[in-house]
Amino acid sequence: MSGLSEAVTILKATFEKYADKEGEKNTLTKRELAELLRNEFPVGGPTSKAAENNFFSMLDDDNNSVVNFMEFVNFVAYFATMSYQE
Ligand SMILES: [Ca+2]
Ligand SMILES: [Ca+2]
C-alpha cells in the first residue's frame, strides 16, 4: 500500500471509530466529533465547550446537525492546508 492510500485508510478508520459510538454509524454527532478532535487533534483542537461548538458548525457544511465523511475530509484538507506553510 502506498503512503497516500494508507493515509486514506487511516482517515476512514478514524472517522468510523468515532462515528460508530452513538446515533448513525456513518455520521458524527457533536459529542462524537468533540471526542475525535480531543483525541486526534490534541494540538489545534478545541479547548472549551464553546470551541467545540465552533468546530462543529465549521465542519457541518449543510447544517443538518451531523458531520458526514465528506464534511470531515473537507476539514482534514483544510487542516492540512493550514499546517502547510513555508
Ligand atoms: Ca454516529
Ligand atoms: Ca452535515
UniProtKB/TrEMBL annotation:
Give an example GO molecular function.
calcium-dependent protein binding
Q: Which ranges carry the S100/CaBP-9k-type calcium binding subdomain domain?
A: 4-46
Keywords attached to this Swiss-Prot or TrEMBL record, sorted alphabetically, are: Calcium, Metal-binding, Repeat
InterPro entries per the UniProt record, alphabetical: EF-hand-dom_pair, S-100_dom, S100/CaBP7/8-like_CS, S100_Ca-bd_sub
**Pfam families assigned:** S_100
The question of whether Metal-binding is a record keyword is answered with yes
**A Gene Ontology term for the protein's cellular component:** cytoplasm
The UniProt entry, under PANTHER family, shows: PROTEIN S100, S100 CALCIUM-BINDING PROTEIN
Q: What is this protein called?
A: Protein S100-A6 Calcyclin S100 calcium-binding protein A6
* Species name: Channa argus (Northern snakehead)
